[in-house]
Design a protein that fits this description.
The chain has 3 helices and 3 strands. The protein has 72 residues and is α+β, with helices and mostly antiparallel strands. The two termini are 27 Å apart. Belongs to the glycosyl hydrolase 31 family.
Length: 72
């Protein structure tokens, strides 16, 4: 599909949202496995941009790829 889009001269820009909310079923797994960015005290860094308690996925951790791809 992307090849056909490129053939038509359309430029594609991909954006991901690196946040997982506390309400997500993936949140507890992410905390358990250390898949989120942490504060210096070891707690999960969170902010309230779109909803309370959004954690940022640490994509430098190879294990988090299974979490966000649905292979966990």
């Amino acid at each position: 599909m992307l090849a056909r889009i490129h053939e038509r001269g359309v430029k594609v820009c991909v954006w991901i949202n690196p946040y997982i909310a506390q309400k997500s079923p993936l949140f507890d797994e992410g905390v358990r496995n250390g898949y989120f960015i942490h504060n210096s005290d070891g707690s999960v860094w969170q902010w309230d941009k779109w909803q309370a308690g959004m954690a940022i996925v640490d994509f430098t951790n190879p294990g988090c790829h299974a979490l966000v791809s649905g292979e966990a």
